[in-house]
Write a structure and sequence with these properties.
Elements: H1 10-21, H2 25-38, H3 43-55, H4 59-71, H5 77-89, H6 93-100, H7 103-106, H8 111-123, H9 130-136
Helix pairs in contact: 1-2, 1-3, 2-3, 3-4, 4-5, 5-6, 6-8, 8-9
């Protein structure tokens, strides 16, 4: 049997992930904070913390963890999609646009993405897409 080292984040991360899957977000946040105390730069733990906070309805805090992942170099389209969606929900249209607009090339057939971008353009006062006026009027 292998002993767990005091500075090993794996048990915290595994428990955090398990709690997320069970919908026990407060417990997940607690365990993941233990892992972040050991290694605050771990991408996987930061991702899990973002998921846990997102699931717990703590959207502003989730944004900060997802943003940290991007700052650490994560270019995963799903991460950028979620981050952009959270910025949109928060009314931060410029940030939402910055994360969602590059995804159009990668995810061309995503109707939700196109609708989100149309809404952002409308909110920012842009009418470069003809579909904006169809959805929201002149």
């Amino acid at each position: 049997m292998q002993k767990i080292k005091i500075n090993d984040i794996q048990p915290y991360a595994l428990l955090g992930e398990l709690y997320i899957k069970q919908g026990k977000f407060a417990e997940a946040i607690d365990k993941l904070q233990g892992a972040l105390n050991i290694n605050p730069q771990d991408m996987f733990v930061n991702y899990l913390m973002g998921l846990a906070l997102d699931g717990a309805g703590k959207k502003t805090q989730a944004i900060s963890f997802y943003q940290k992942l991007v700052d650490l170099g994560n270019q995963e389209p799903g991460l950028h999609n979620r981050l952009g969606s959270l910025y949109l929900e928060a009314g931060s249209y410029i940030q939402a646009y910055q994360y969602l607009s590059p995804l159009v090339q990668a995810i061309e057939d995503d109707a939700k993405l196109h609708a989100q971008l149309a809404l952002i353009n409308y909110k920012l006062g842009y009418s470069r897409w003809p579909v904006v006026s169809e959805f929201f009027g002149p």
